[in-house]
Design brief:
CATH superfamily of the largest domain: Dihydrodipicolinate Reductase, domain 2
Bound molecules: nicotinamide-adenine-dinucleotide
CATH class of the largest domain: Alpha Beta
Number of domains: 2
Radius of gyration: 20 Å
Strand order of the largest sheet: 14-13-12-11-7-10-9-8-15
Distance between the termini: 31 Å
Shape: globular
Structural class: alpha/beta
Number of helices: 11
Order of helices and strands: EHEHEHEHEHEHEHHHEEEEEEEHHE
CATH topology of the largest domain: Dihydrodipicolinate Reductase, domain 2
Length: about 350
Amino acid sequence: MKPVRVGLIGCGEIAAKDTLPAIQASGRLKVVAAMDVNLDLARDLAEKGGAAFWTDRAETLAARPDVEAVIVSTPHHLHVPMGLLAARHGKHVLVEKPIATTGADARRLIAACKRKGVILSVLYIRRFEPVARKTAELIRKGVLGRTTGFSLISMGEKKESYWTSGFTGRVVTDWRTRKATSGGGFLMMNFSHNIDLIQSLLGVEPASVYAQYDTFRTPVEVEDYVSVTARYRCGAIGTFLGSTVCPGALRVPDHIFGTHGTIVMDNPLRVFTRKKIRGLKPDEWNEFPLPSARASRADFLTQFAKAVRGQAAPPATGEEALVSLRVIEAAYRSQEERKPIALARGARRS
Ligand SMILES: NC(=O)c1ccc[n+]([C@@H]2O[C@H](COP(=O)([O-])OP(=O)(O)OC[C@H]3O[C@@H](n4cnc5c(N)ncnc54)[C@H](O)[C@@H]3O)[C@@H](O)[C@H]2O)c1
């Protein structure tokens, strides 16, 4: 397969730290151009990626005939404008998560990509982690019986500098701190991944969402502590509890519960089941050591490249990413309106 020629829009932390190395590890994509409003960052990434071209104009990159697909790694509020620009030039689109800051924007991008016949994927890489694949396989085998719920707890402490310079300090910026540019705090920034993961594992959308959140300690407009309860269409009741301001909090692995078993999404993955299932001992904990999750971004990119060549389905499509965004929007609305928010089935999907 000929490598898919990509242009990078946004050459900040994630593009340099994770996406470029994953492109190189995949071998199915080749960087031909890089763009950032900070030309030094664009040049740096182009040189590291072996690309001959860099620019500070998105239109210039999107219009290049040698670019087949565009990877957007900008602040959240720019995902849709950049994606639309790429689609207008007939380029396949791969945007970082979340797809957009509002459902209305996400729908515009989904519709534009459909109109132009280009692929739209969103970098929800947790689906490609070995723990997610193994969990999906065990659920398919029936270890849980009927899925009753889950707990996804992510309590930790982020340095205040994270909000203005990420983990590496490559870019100094305030986009993460403002609602207009990030769309939200922990829920939008981090739990978006977990919401997508659960969505892909359960295969059904939530029917209703109730949430409470606050900003306890961080000098930002967005939340640094959030609790969401979601009821899914299969009946499962799940809890997302996350924060960046919990000193000393211990890591809690994700749990998925069912009428006949429990999966603990850790490494080793642990599963307990009352069912008789080949390869598993009933009524006791079974352990499955897993390979590292390091390759998950490269695996995602490989599937995206194969999709461009018509050899695979696109990973994490715009429609699927819209589901997570609708949950997040409903959670924010839930606190504003002090009530659970019902989600219409696949409402106005595209
Ligand atoms: N998938 C993941 O696991 C993961 C992890 C971290 C971050 N992200 C996502 O990646 C995206 C970028 O995050 P980051 O941490 O790299 O942020 P960052 O601030 O380090 O980088 C953003 C880059 O976008 C550039 N930019 C800003 N305005 C632009 C414009 N108009 N045109 C072109 N470039 C512009 C900035 O100069 C900067 O270099 C966000 O969507 C974030 O949520 C994803």
